[in-house]
Amino acid sequence: DRMSMSSLLHILQGHVRASNMDIHQYAEIAKKQDSLRSQLKKDASFAKPRPKKCRFAEVTDGQIRSNVKEVECLKTMKSLWWKASEMRTIQEELVETVQFFRRYRHDYIESVEVIAQKSDKLPEEVVEKHLKNLTRDNYTRGLEAHIVKLLSQNRRTTVRAVMQEQENAAGMKDEDKKMTQLRKESLANSKLSTRFAEKMGQCDEIIALKASLSSW
Question: pTM higher than 0.70, yes or no?
């Protein structure tokens, strides 16, 4: 469903309004972020790059065997357009953002939970209020599952359910029927994430519109 123009303008207004936190709270947060950044740098210096592994169950002539695929770690690749120091900086900033929102932005977490769980059952003005909150914090895009436990738990539940269904259907000879069963299991467990993705798509549309109206 498309949002009305009045609703869109309502969300865009006040995008840069200051937070209600006082200067002492900001100073305390900055102090904690500096401490976290130092610890991350220390940990990174001792970390050894390891290849990523993914295990697949394959069925051949009724026999199930494990097939392990190995993916080279980015840290060992040479032909990348970013430096290792730049990647560490990016990762540190992302961790800081996640930690900050977990500790201090309970209003953001509430908005994510409301949009994911109840957006199809609440009045439009309530949904718009929470969408406005998420639009204001667009730099957290893609980090929602790391910040909000509800989303990460739902993702794990969905993966486990599909893997269990795959195990149950290991002896099924009809591959089309097997894929249909797996799809049904995935859809049944991912309704929450699907609803949230649809609403976040509206936020992305608003942010893109605002960017197109800005002078570069």
Answer: no
